[in-house]
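Shipment paperwork, digital attachment
Item: protein structure file
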Amino acid sequence: MKILLYISCFVTFFNVLVAQNGDSAACYPEVRWKAGAEAGYVRAMHNVAFSALPGMFSCNPGFEGGNGSGLRAGGFYSMILDSYCKHRWLFTLGVDIQRVSSAFTRTENIVIDNDGLAVATDEHRLNTTLLQVGITPSVQWYPIDNVFVRVGMNVARTLQSSYTTSEALITPSNVLFENNLRTRNVSEGNIASLSALFASAQVTLGYEFPLSVDGAYSITPLVMYSYGINNNVATPDPWKTNVVSVGLQWSFASLYYPPPPPPPPLPELKNVPVAPVVVVTKPIELKAPKRALNVGVTSKTIDTRGNEVQADKLEIYEIVQVTTHPLLNYVFFDSTQSMLHQRYVALDSSQTLLFDFKQFNNVGTMETYSQILNIIGKRLRDTPKANITLTGCNADIYSELNAMELSKARAQRIAEYLQNVWGIAKERIIVQARDLPEKPSRNTVLDGADEDRRVEFSSNIADIVKPIITYDTIYTTANGVQSIVIHPDVKSEAGVLSWRVTVKQKGTIKKIYQGSGEMPSSFVYLLDEDSKLVPRVSAPLDIEVVVTDNDGTTSMARSQSIQVQITKRTDLQRELYNLILFDFGQSSITGINRATVDFIKTRIQDKNSVMIEGLTDRVGETDINKQLALRRAQSVATILGIPDQNIKGTGASELYSNDLPEGRFYCRTVKILIEQKVK
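Attachment content:
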């Protein structure tokens, strides 16, 4: 802080000298304000004296320092504090986001008992990642042309934090920890007890290179030093961070040019002969007549039979639906990795007390699956007699060929989570490893290899992996309406340059179609494939078409509003079941699917309406997938005794992301919808 005080005093004194001796006359162009963006590389240096982060177990004697690196990006706005062309003072307000990954290590000598005492060297390692957003008010000073010094204070808040920690033997190579591994105390999670705000003093040096003649645009190499003021964690253990950053700044300056002074008055002339006036007639320019652009639009609804009817009104049913989400008892890993992927929700042990299955009501299937480890952990905790078997697998190709150790590490990672977070006794968890799963996907296809990199769950008690049953409020169209078809009517003599079709409700865009060139003759707004497109409030749907032709003329048309009525149906009971875990390319109903179908059969009564739909993922040819989907639906219909007119095979679907292995598993499904009118 003393250094910053000395710098501030020196800068103030120098500016007083410049103000007294400089030319105070205005010079132009004058800069009104500046704004821009900057980005750079960050090198972090940590001053620490702790053995573990808050809430984290560690037996090391204490870290003494650490280093890290990352990237930062942000923007700034500067106000000019004086009117000189040189030696300007500016007040700058900056906002930036910074992500830094750091490593802390400490080695020590310990005694290992492996059928005899041995002195070993082990390494304690802590890796942290912090994502922070900060604001920096500062004063910027130009001692000479294009060179500036910026002094300010940064206040940042952490958006995301995570850590991994481990203890590994380095030497000798023939000893193991008590767990028969060369690694122990492996954990990961979010950093607890972080300080609410991080404050640091910053000094930045830059040199502006003009990119335009008037200097309005410039690019500036930057060097910044940041001195950490407060502790990173709200504990007495010291952890402060100093940062050095190098980067580039792009800036734009708003320039002011004064109007030129008026010319001097002309001298008065007397007795000067006047020249005759010559009138020059300019030929009249004939403009081409404006070419016509006419735009119109109509909309109709389509029912289950494909018939189009006038779209005057759309009735939406609000129904409470019992939904059975099948539980995919797999957790997937990236290639050659055993770390738990961030798309799986990981809790702290303190958060497990508030975990409740009611939170899955009105939550999608994939969001439910992301909690797979916590669902299993909760059920194991509530069922003390249940044991769990974790079978680690790999793709058994390329870098994972014969990678049994990797398979075991994946299963062990899940076991440690269940033990450390959910408190499941080690004796209740069986860890196994193999190469390919017992029922692998096609590992010669990249999608199949991704699906084989997994840990499989099984239990001696079936309820541990039973489906999740939720009570969801859904919105569905009435009277068999499945979609709205939009018919634009465009007549353009100059040809269409671009077009846009927008579906809105109460000013909120529900769907937008846009493109260039010739406009399609129709657009289908699908209501039966995406629940987000179904209106959920009683307000009109408005359809708007905007077309621009090659002459630059724009025309717009709106269709007649479609009135929407929401009706709450308390007289209708719906149950939706989903089957997954079909063998690859197979349609037979076996295992957990057979048990689910047998249960569904008990739920069907004579007055029920039952619809069955088969779907597949994107793997394979379109025609084959459609046939496979239909066979799966027919297999279910045969067991339930449902006629053919109530089934269909859709084939490859985008119900869930086909880019994720779990998304493809959930797309290989048969949906059984049961509706029953109740009094």
